Amino acid sequence: MNKVFPDARSALAGVIKDGMTIMSGGFGLCGIPEALADAILESGAKNLTVISNNAGVDGIGLGKLLATRQISKMISSYVGENKIFAQQYLAGELELEFTPQGTLSERIRAGGAGIPAFFTKTGVGTIIAEGKDVREFDGEMYVMERALVADLSIVHAWKADTEGNLVFRKTARNFNPMMATAGRVTVAEVEHLVPAGSIDPDHIHTPGIYVNRIVHVPEAPKRIEFRTTRKPTDAATPAGAGEEV
Asked: How many CA atoms lie within 13 Å of 196's alpha carbon, on the beta-carbon side?
């Protein structure tokens, strides 16, 4: 079966539809499946539930889908950098399920592993535990969290072969690998596409059995969420120079 599609739009053809649940990988702006998010934007699909650690920033990735109001619900951990997200949530126009970051990651991992629920200490005694099953184990209280499974997972990988074996780099390994396992359909955009068998099996992070479709995105943008630079006077000072103590 050929998993490689010529572009993001065709990779989502026949998959994307109104009302579906989508997992979107990455952390901040690192490793986000931007090309696939843009294809979802172009599809016009609406009333989407999106599971993502964060909602990116205005005008990039999921931020575009929020601006067009194609997303009706977010399941996230951190959304503080997106003004549109805040405005819609505070106005009651966007449903939000806040989840502690580690719990979110484990809910996704559990979904990919076929585990329907698990117990964690995180959130016990807070609003996180309201309405959930809380039990005692070995003298400690734990709250039950349900696993997450999506109709569609979109992920961004650094390298893949034509069988869908994926390799992620550095911060892009946050959420992308586990989301690839927790989607009923997983579509991966990849920066480098190589023939099957070209990747050392020990270097594969996500086996191709989890990946249904691939789109090659060789010119994927490398965005920086917060740019920090030295002042000009600092740049002229040699490393280690300063006043004697």
From this structure: 10
